[in-house]
C-alpha cells in the first residue's frame, strides 16, 4: 500500500471505531501530521479523556499510554509501538520508591509523569516538567522525594531552596548526554541564536541556557521570541511543531544525539495495523488506576 492509501484507511478505521489518535511531540513528522492531537504526554491524555472517543490510539511510549488509561479507564487504549519504552521511567521501580520512603518517612513522594503506572500509584503527587517547580513549592510538605529524573529534580531544588529535596539517580539518556562544552561550541557557531533547553538536561547545561522549559514551554517561548534562529536542546521530533508554527524561523539542534529511538518506533503501517486489529491494548489493574489517578489529581490541585 502506498502512503496515501494507508492514511485513507487509517481515517476510515478511525471513524468506524470511534478512535482518536494522539502523537507526542517527539514522534516522527508523518505521525504528528496524522494525529488528532499532538502535545506533551499529560496534555494528550487529558485531551483524549475529554473526547467521546471509545478508543485512544497512542503514538508514543508505554508510560504515556498508561497515563491515558489512568485518565480514561473506560476507554480502550492502544499503544502503537508496543516495545517503545522510556529508559528514564525504567530507572526506578516500586521497590526503590519504598526504600526511599523508609529512609525519609516524612517526605512526600513527587513523581515525574515519565514513570510507570506502578510507581505513580505509590506516589503522593505526580508532576510534569511544566509544573514541577510550582507543585513542589505549593504542596504543604517541607521534605520531598523527587523521582525519577535527577536533572529535573536538581532544577526544582535550585528553584525551591526552601524545601529539602531528595533525588534518585535516574536520567533521560538523550538529554543527559549533552555537555556544557556542546553549548559553548554551538553558541560559538551561532552567536546570535538563544539556547532553549529541556530541564532533563544536566544542571551545568541548563545553567548555560537562555531558557529552560518543558516541550510546551519551549513551543511558547519560541512563538514569543523575536530571534530568527534558535538552538534547541530537546528531542528533534519537536522540530515538526516548531517549524509549523514558526515558518520564518530557523532551528538548530543543540546536539545530533537528541534523537530518541523509542519515540521514533511508531510507523504509519503500524497505526493502520493496530486500528484494524485492535491489538496492543494497555490494561492496568483497577487499584493501580485508582491510586495513580489520585496522585495525578493531587497534582492538578497544587500546580
Ligand atoms: O511529558 C512529556 O511529554 C515529556 C516527555 C516532555 C515534556 O516536556 O513535555
How would you describe what is shown here?
The structure is a single chain. The protein is of the alpha/beta class and 303 residues long. Helices cover 45% and strands 16% of the residues. The protein is built from 15 helices and twelve strands. The N and C termini lie far apart (47 Å). Bound molecules: (~{Z})-2-methylbut-2-enedioic acid. The site of (~{Z})-2-methylbut-2-enedioic acid has 11 residues, from helix 12.
What are the SSEs and their pairings?
Layout: H1 3-16, E1 19-24, H2 29-34, E2 37-39, H3 41-49, E3 55-59, H4 62-71, E4 76-79, H5 94-103, E5 108-112, H6 117-121, E6 125-127, H7 132-138, E7 143-147, H8 150-159, E8 164-167, H9 173-176, H10 180-189, E9 195-197, H11 203-208, E10 211-212, H12 215-224, E11 229-233, H13 239-245, E12 250-253, H14 268-277, H15 286-302
Parallel strand pairs: 1-2, 1-3, 3-4, 5-6, 5-7, 7-8, 9-10, 9-11, 11-12
Bound molecules: (~{Z})-2-methylbut-2-enedioic acid (CIZ).
(~{Z})-2-methylbut-2-enedioic acid (CIZ) binds at residues 24, 40-41, 113-114, 128-129, 198, 214-216.
